[in-house]
Specification:
The protein contains 23 helices and two strands. By secondary structure, the protein is mostly helical. The protein has a two-stranded parallel sheet with strand order 1-2. Helix 14 packs across helix 15. The termini are far apart. The mean pLDDT is 88.
Length: 485
Amino acid sequence: MKNKSTDLLKTFDADKLKRFQDYLSSPYSKAGPLLQHLCSFLLRFAPSFQNILCTDENAFEAIYPKKPYNKTQLSKVFSQLFNMLKDFVALEYAIEDEVFKQKSLMQYAIKNNILEWVDELYEKNKKEIRQTADLNFVTLRRKYEIENLYTDFLILHKDDGGGDLNFLNLLDAFEEYSLCTQLYIYAQIINRQRIYPFEYPKAHLEYLIQELHQRNNPKKAFTDIWYHLILLLQHPKDRTYYDKSKTLIDKYEKIITKDILRIFITVMRNALSDCFEAGSQAHYQEYFYWIKKEIKEEIVYVDNNLIQFKTFRNFFVVASRLKEWKWAEDFIKKHEHRISGQPEDCRAIYLYCRAEILLAKKEFSNAKKSLKNFKCKDIYLSLDERRLLAKLCYELGEDEEFEKLLNSFGRKLTYHKRSLPTHHWQANRQFINIINSLFLTRSQISVMTRSERAKAIAELQEKINSADVIPEKIWLLEKVEDLKR
């Protein structure tokens, strides 16, 4: 069975389904027995609604046991159910929305002239906003909404001029909420210009920046962070703005909510390639700093507390570049069964990372065994695995298998040449050529004279260093150093 009601019910977990059933049964919903019977029938087959007994005919019989099937009549009941579902979803969101809740209470008290309660609610909200542990748009919106209602209340119900004076509080609340919202939107726009460039009102943004720049009084925390992030996005190569933004995020980290912190970190990570030389140790160290913060604050996870396949892979790559093997090992153990993606690829990325760690520990045989059951559809991970296997065969001195592997690797690259980005194809092609040269030099080095050996090693070293982009560069250079000994 598939319709708008079942589609919406599929998004409910077990607790939410139970709450909806209770809601229909309560006098508050005014649902009536027809909807209650239909709901009871449907919940027997939740959440998939794929059972062969879950049919329109059986649903109709559950509602009207003694009537012949009538599609139009059933559609009407389903339409009523869908409306009830929408009301229930809206009600649940309203209950969780503190701004809506406090605003509704204030409006009720004002409408019904419960004047003492209005003052009490206003002071309570002011205190809670002042003491809140959250630095986000919800807090700013709540402050503005409450000040707006209270100003109208003072003007209508009191003649002491308090409403006029409260306009200043209202202006302050509105300015902070509006300013932060605008800066947030501009930050998102500029951040996405890298992918989807489009025109936006730059003159207005410059006006906002100048206004903030000329203020003598200290900017409020939330505004200050957005202000410096905007400057960083506008001047990505200026480390001053990067360092200042980082300092502010660290300073207010405990009162920044996770959804906002996620945006801040995304902006900071996107700025890394401009502020630091791409691929440098400093670049990776800064990236690693934000990775650890994302994991610590648990903002890296998606639905069901999972980490995305691409994110898992990127985090491991950064840790391996910095040789943070202990951290990397703990990371893959913790997330082995928490990777989001195709099951085959998720298992493959785990096996690959474990093999890389074993290689770093010089447990070459175990590393190779770890890749025995490696299978994946992701072409980039598949190429990573081929390079890793080539390194392991080299380390183990398995010459015949090494040669076969390079041949199959080369054929794989040729097959995927049109589908791979040019720089990926060239980088892997260079790796094959250089590791093959390394293998040939090692196999002949015992019969070389001292001068021939020195020349061959120097040429190999030059070949690696002069390559534009080459994967496994550090490992290749280490193997060249081994030839000198």
